[in-house]
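Handout, section 4.2: multi-component inputs.
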Amino acid sequence: MALDIKPTRSELINLKRRIKQTSSGYNLLKMKRDGLFFEFRTLLAEMIAAREELVGTYRDALKSIALASSIEGGLAVKSAAIAATSGPEVTVSRRNIMGVVVPKVDGTNLTTTVETRPTGIIGGSPYIDESADSYSVLISKIVKAAEMEATLKRLLEEIEATKRRVNALEFVVIPEMKEAQSFIQLRLEEMEREETFRLKRFKNK
Amino acid sequence: MTGIVSGRSNIYNAAARAKARKASLIDSTRMRQLLQLGPESIGASIGELGYRNEMDIYSARMTGADAVEAALFHNLDNDLSEVMRFCQGPLKSIVSVYVERLSYEKAKTVLRAVNGGCSDELIESQILPSENPMNSIWLDIVRTTETVAEAASAMAGTPWGKELAKLEGSEATLEEMEDALDRQYYSHALKVSKGRDSNIHLMKYIRTEIDHRNIINQFRELRQNISPDKRLRMVIHGGRIPSSVMTQVSQATSQEAIIDALRRSNSFDDDGFDEALEKSNSTGSLDPIASLLTHKRHAMLRRFAYLNPVSSFPVIYYIERKVLEIQNLRLLVRGKTIGLTSEVLEAHMDF
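Output:
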């Protein structure tokens, strides 16, 4: 590799300082990568559990609406559904995990109860109630899972980027700098040897 | 839309016609055969069982269970208006209680549509199909009104419209309006059951219906953690279970406590409740209790219809059997389409 560096003592001092800084940056990045990975693994375990729970809740919700549509009729279920004047709303803000900006999803009106639904209580159906309840639970779980999934995705991207930086430092930048350092050291030693030899030659004359 | 009608009832004639109509309903054997079929074959068989005309009307626009359900309700509307036509005098008032139940539901749908700001097209295409001429009056209200109050005014002249008119100016919510309609329905039913050409069994049946509605509502409200005060306010009066017992029921904090409180009344038939409660607790659903109450009510109606062959009962029994047939067919089609097992379907059917 052709090195475009000046083999001077000041350059060597600069290089040594830069190697030290880069190594400490490398260590910091490695620690960040490990920290992010730890965070990722913790969240992943939670996400897997939340996903399984979500699938179970979705299955229950489907079952309950199937029963409600079969017993009360699809028209009655639709009639109950159209009464709703407000639906669930989701706001996305930002939060910071180890310098990584991840989304924070907050929902309003996610769950409803018989009291908060605009339809009458007296003529209501237990099947439609149960169906609406299961979908309320499902929506809040979807919001939670969406936040976790987006966070995991963002963390994964950051881990990848950090990993690339760590690898670049470990296998390219630091070795190159060390190579340059040894080149300068070698060159300086050689220059010293030349100087000693020249002095000896002068003395002999 | 009938109030209390004067004149003489044609009970003999109407009972005979109702019995003849009942004989043409799908019997339990045929219903069990349908239970063994797949969803497509059920749809075809339903067409052959007297619903062909209505199914043809809807098959152009809808598919699957939606088309079958719309056709079934169209047929029910036609059938019930024919029944109303052959009833006269006070009998007509009694029968109208059961026929108008569907109108109350449609009135609620209209109020919900207006309240929720639903598009006319959605209501017309999915909930109150325009192919059914009996829906036109309801669709007109949806099209021409903007607020719930306007929709309520547009229903003036009907029993439900009169009840809604009482709430005018009170800024009543949709929930209050619907609850008022349900109360009015039962109070009107009780009033009619005390009038001419009624009998003690009819009154007993209506009061049992009120009890069953109160019981299932207490279970629902308990699950939703509704306060005892509100639970007490939601009790419909006029049932066979005394108000003092219903007050205790509304204070109960568990399903078992509700049953214990209900057992203090001699009018509460607790047969099968322990098993239903156990099932309900294990499945986390009120389905076993709701099914038990429905089966009990149907058994009671069947018994009364046989005990009173020359009364309004055969007509009411026919109407309830027809509604039941529609519900069973809908359950079969929807249930099979969605993938409910035959056991689940059979448990919810009443032959």
